[in-house]
Design a protein that fits this description.
The chain has 494 residues and is of the alpha/beta class. Helices cover 34% and strands 14% of the residues. It contains 13 helices and twelve strands. It has a six-stranded parallel β-sheet. The chain has a four-stranded mixed β-sheet with strand order 1-2-4-3, covered by helices on one side. Strands 5-6 form a two-stranded antiparallel sheet. The longest helix is centred in the first third of the chain and has 22 residues. It is globular. About 2% of the residues have low confidence.
Length: 494
């Protein structure tokens, strides 16, 4: 039986990088094709079949060699790789040549009660097919980016129709809001979460927990660090450059925050090869994000938003749980007081020197499932001291869902801090009535003043590309309702 690809793993075991090499060589293969892994490490004989069972690949054979063993693995029949029925892209007029970007604004100019999405937008089916082919090495990057351009045009146009004041590109080029860095940074590799199950203490139990949390572990990819990380190309500047060429509206770009990114990238028994502890990894993350934020502001971002949802896991997660999914961050956490101090230090170091009015932070309690029961719950009380100290101009907060507690907990935040108030729940298929949204927005205006309030959904509409929370039609309708309410309030308080 002949393999379609082969590599020599030497004496690496499954907990020391062999699985990353397997994924690197397996991804470009078609479903059903064979990969040969040569190894001299004895533990692979037991661990490799277990990994195959967890990931849905087939362990075919083990053949003794003069030195070591040759293992054959058959690639699983995955939804992303199996030839799919043709999904028609919408008929779009040939795009006109991109206009020269508008002059770079010196400050964010937004009206009172400005309306914006949090970041992500549902991806069309044809983009999802291209994204998987790109991530698995079967589609050239230039072709993928051209396909993504069309998806961005649709996402931006929908926000413009809805009346949004600050648009995003919908994160159409990303597999998720945070893990996409694994395809942009040197020293990282994007792998399905199932590939990382052997690194946890009880893989079978963790797989069951992911299933209970409604996490599509075979589809959702996670960045794994296999060498020193470096920003060899921008993370999101290319997203901003294209968006600025197709809309005159100010643009917000979301990035994973330094605490989230450190928690996401740090995986014991993987990351500890290039970094002995998470602290030097965090130093590298801070440097990368500072360079990216500077480039985004220089390129004309109206607002740069750092996403830090894992802060809620620090204060609301189960005390006995050392590891949880929490929107893609799998690594362990320490004592809450220690973790919050660590996060606060990283945020200060990342944002030092940047104009507050150009940077923001977003926080929620998890946005990977429509099932409200699997997300965390608790008001912002334990995080208010951190919020007071943040060097940002705006906080975008989940506040519509009852899981977020009472708005009044935030009453004593600094008066110069603008509050992005979630007034619709992106997880609900129904579109909230204008009266519901108006009541929530009016409550925020009474508490903070109209000049401090920005209106948003609780979170993005498609945090993970493969697991959108809403359809594009519902997303647009929710934003339109928010925009209509914002105008009514502007007229009332003018």
């Amino acid at each position: 039986m002949h393999s379609h690809a082969s590599f020599d793993g030497g004496n690496l075991d499954c907990g020391n990088g062999l699985l990353l090499l397997i994924r690197k060589h397996l991804d470009p293969l078609l479903p059903g094709q064979l990969l040969e892994i040569r190894s001299t490490e004895r533990s692979v004989a037991e661990d490799l079949p277990a990994w195959c069972r967890l990931t849905g690949n087939a362990f075919v054979s083990a053949t003794p060699l003069p030195e070591g063993t040759a293992y054959l693995v058959r690639k699983r029949e995955s939804e992303s790789a199996v030839p799919l029925p043709a999904v028609a892209r919408p008929a779009m007029p040939a795009p006109e040549p991109l206009a020269a970007p508008a002059p770079i604004p010196t400050q964010t100019a937004l009206p009172p009660l400005a309306v914006t999405g949090i970041g992500s937008w549902p991806r069309p089916a044809w983009l999802m097919r291209a994204l998987h082919e790109y991530l698995e090495g079967r589609l050239p990057e230039a072709e993928f980016q051209q396909t993504a351009d069309d998806a961005v045009r649709l996402a931006v146009a929908a926000q413009e129709r809805a009346g949004v004041d600050l648009v995003t590109d919908g994160e159409q080029r990303r597999d998720s809001y945070a893990s996409f860095v694994g395809s942009r940074l040197e020293g990282t590799q994007l792998v399905p979460i199932t590939d990382l199950l052997p690194y946890v203490d009880d893989p079978e139990q963790f797989a069951q927990e992911l299933q209970a949390l409604d996490v599509p572990a075979q589809k959702v990819r996670h960045p794994a660090v296999f060498g020193p990380i470096a920003r060899v190309r921008p993370l999101a500047v290319h997203e901003l450059t294209f968006a600025r060429a197709i809309t005159p509206k100010p643009i917000k770009v979301a990035l994973p925050g330094p605490y989230l990114l450190t928690r996401t990238l740090w995986m014991e028994c993987v990351t500890d090869k290039p970094y002995p502890t998470r602290e030097p990894l965090a130093d590298a993350v801070v440097g990368i994000l500072r360079a990216e934020i500077a480039a985004l502001i220089a390129t004309g971002a109206g607002l740069v938003q750092l996403d830090e949802p894992v802060l809620s896991e620090v204060v609301f997660g189960k005390p006995q749980a050392d590891r949880s999914f929490m929107c893609g961050a799998l690594s362990e956490r320490k004592d809450p007081t220690e973790e919050l101090a660590f996060a606060q230090d990283l945020l200060h170091r990342t944002l030092a020197g940047f104009p507050r009015e150009r940077v923001a932070m977003h926080m929620c309690r998890g946005n990977w499932s429509k099932d409200e029961r699997v997300a965390l719950a608790g008001d912002y009380r334990p995080l208010v001291p951190l919020f007071r100290d943040l060097p940002v101009g705006t906080l975008f907060l989940e506040l519509c869902t009852p899981r977020a507690g009472e708005l009044e907990v935030l009453a004593d935040l600094p008066p110069e801090l603008q509050i992005g108030v979630g007034v619709v729940n992106q997880k609900l298929d129904t579109v909230e009535s204008a009266e519901e949204v108006l009541a929530r927005a009016e409550r925020a205006v009474q508490l903070f003043g109209a000049h401090r309030v920005r209106l948003t959904p609780d979170c993005g509409f498609a945090t993970f590309a493969d697991n959108p929370i809403a359809s594009a039609t519902v997303a647009e309708a929710k934003l339109r309702t928010i925009a209509d309410v914002a105008q009514r309030l502007r007229d009332r308080y003018a």
